[in-house]
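Q: Give me the 3D complex with pyridoxal-5'-phosphate.
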Amino acid sequence: MQQSSLIKPVLGGAYPTISHGQGVYLYDKEGKDYLDASSGAVTANIGHGVQEVMEAMVKQAKQVSFVYRSQFTSEAAEELAKKITELTKGDLTYSFFVNSGSEATETALKIAIQHWQEKGKPRKQKIISRWMSYHGITMGALSMSGHPVRRERFTSLLESYPSVSPPYCYRCPLQLDAHSCGMACASELEASIRRIGSDNIAAFIAEPVIGAAGGAIVPPDGYFRKLKEICEENDILFIADEVMTGFGRTGKMLACEHWDVKPDIVTFGKGMSGGYTPIAAAVMTKEVMEPILGGSRSIMGGHTLSANPLSCAVSLAVLNYVEEHELVEKSADRGKDLSRGLKQLARKYSFIGDIRGRGLLIGLEFVQEKVAKTPFPNPVNVTNAIIELGMKNGILLYPAAAGLDGVTGSAIIISPPLTITEEECAELLMRIDITFQQFNETLCKLPS
Ligand SMILES: Cc1ncc(COP(=O)(O)O)c(C=O)c1O
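A: Here is the predicted complex, encoded as structure tokens.
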């Protein structure tokens, strides 16, 4: 193998070279096809090789690709901001464009702090977040992330923002019963606010469905209502991190719609461009913006490439495609089909402990013993083994952490493009079945 100068996730790892993509399939240089059952990192929401997006890309590139946001606005950026307001039913009226989900959550953090400063409450600077969460890899975003493995190397540099238990009912962190707990995990937010003092807190951030840090954990009904009420009572903004869930992934335009909860700030990324270009956003209500509009009139944030016309035109084409092809509804329907198929597989393979999620964001948690929900002694190896077998069998799966400490559980996410057809779902299930069968055989060979 030739020496490579490119730093990859596993240094020295063997990665196939991709040739092209079409629909839900990717093809490598050797001609092998991969069913993209993870949409990469839950990103390629409209599938690969969509003609309309390429046309929008070329059209915009021929006009202008880059202008600096301090000097110009562009039709593409204006149209995209308007489209997001429309798609969020007019609740989120102001968009700030950045280039990655991490930048989006970090921008949301800064906007929340600035909101309170301009309201004459400069002490409100802290953020509260939950354990089993991931909000990004930059320092502010990582400070908010309750992901022990990703925090570990930088602990001394990070703020201790995670302080609330997640709604992980499969293995309740508070050792309570889901039917009688009274959502004690949500009440923890109140306790946390009392300890820190609401005068010091700008915002609470949460993923509506926990993704990479939990494997598609869906909270009980009423959970987010309760959190939002606690935020309102304490003058704390609620930031919904919809980087993974936004724009149809869970079968609703925003995952928060499942519980009819209205966040003050929402972050988007991933599916916002379907991976066709780097773009993300922090989007907010007029109430969040008002003190800033009536005060300094400038948000302290932004990047050189923020709101570049090329990325905005591409994102606009992707969101139009989602709308015109009714992909939100399709995500809900195909999600039900896939979950049904996966539940049948769970009867066959005892290592599938839990199947959860919404729409086409489906999590599978693996266990050594189903009834006791005993995690495998080497959970990371289990996840990696399944993903590697999947790769060999031409199916891409996304690894997720599970367990409160991020290492004592193993999970994967299944999240194909929202364009997936019924036939392709059947193919996906067949490739997973083969993969699980092979994994089961390796388990039988392990010394007990
Ligand atoms: C919920 C959530 N927020 C933020 C991020 C960070 O996004 P990015 O990797 O684009 O920086 C991710 C990425 O996985 C995510 O899932």
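A quick observation: The first strand starts at residue 18 and ends at 22.
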